[in-house]
Amino acid sequence: MLKPIYALVLAGGSGERFWPLSRRARPKQLLRLVSNETLLEETVARLEGLVSRERILILTNTEQERAVRKLLRCFPTENIVAEPAKRDTAAAVALGTGWVAARDHGAIMIVLPADHVIANRVAFQETLALAADAAEETGELVTVGIKPTWACPGFGYIEHGKPVHLRKRSDKDAIHRVLRFREKPNLDLAESFLRKGNFRWNAGMFVWSVPTVLREFNRHAPALADFISQLCAPENFEKALCDRFSKLPRISFDYAIMEKADHVLVVEASFDWDDIGSWRAVANYFEKDQQGNAANRAITAVDSSNNIVFEEDGTTIALLGVRDLIVVRTKDALLVCHRHEAEKIKELVGKLPPELQ
User: Fold this and answer.
1) Are residues 286 and 232 in the same domain?
2) Which of 211, 244, 268 is the last residue of a domain?
3) Residue 243 shares a structural domain with residue 285
4) Which residues, 6+ apart, have CB-to-CB distance to 73 below 8 Å?
5) Residue 326 is part of which domain span?
6) 155-182 as b/e, with b when 16 or more CB fall inside 10 Å?
7) Is the residue at 153 inside a domain?
8) pLDDT averaged over consecutive 10-residue blocks of the chain (357 residues)?
9) Alpha carbon distance 246, 241 (integer Å)
10) Alpha-carbon dihedral angle through residues 87, 14, 10, 155, given to the nearest 10 degrees
């Protein structure tokens, strides 16, 4: 019988790519970009039926804690924890591991980002259930890989080897042994990955048993392992979080653990997936007119094409004789940029007054 499943939802972020809609206190996962719910709300809802809310930890930071708690009013208050300092994903996963281990030292644990778009909940849960079975049966770290649809240079990649078959599962070639993780490639290298056929996008979703991940922390990141042991001590969680977290090494979980671990499996996602990392990506979910203008609400456009428009409050947006622009209007700010400069919005944010960042 499968052990109890817990989930860690990583809900931090800097709120830069979607400025001016996003801010430090309201990053991507707290925005309603593609539906009437925020990406965080959709992430929590997607787990319903697989993981109970009492077993979900939402990990945010002090700048965003108030907004997260307001958004998830019906969520157990003690299951929302704010990191006291920014220490990257290795420290975040260590914190989540300590939280789960203190409740059930033998549990299965899922780690998920809070800012992805996934429409097919059934397929999503089927993939995670398969990954949980693999984690329990093999005692290995398991990650979820997305089959690439194009040679994206903005994602990390997972190179997989031979298939692995479980005793109690008949899923044909859905699980493979990981050969290595590859950092974000240039376009030529990404195209070669697609041609080879055994590369998957690294979506930052992980599944393992608590004993397995504790073993890997002890092997490869002893400072983080010691922090986890402090969190697990009776009545010591808050004290360890306040006293120790800000002193932990700032390193990603991929660097600290995944790339060093000897035994890692990848389960291929059977669900649709989108990282929506920029306004250009979000535009795929907007209505388009005959000139290719994509907008979240009705606009007026004359001799204008291939523009992206997001308007927060219902103000009329009219375009005349312009092409390839991104126009985003909020209550207190207006962004106008060329759509091919969208990746530089983060640079722009750093030059703004603090109250607008």
Assistant:
1) no
2) 268
3) no
4) none
5) 279-356
6) bbbbbbeeebebeeeebeebbbebeebb
7) yes
8) 89 87 92 94 96 97 95 95 95 97 96 96 96 96 96 94 88 90 93 96 97 98 96 89 95 96 96 92 94 96 98 93 97 95 91 92
9) 8
10) -100
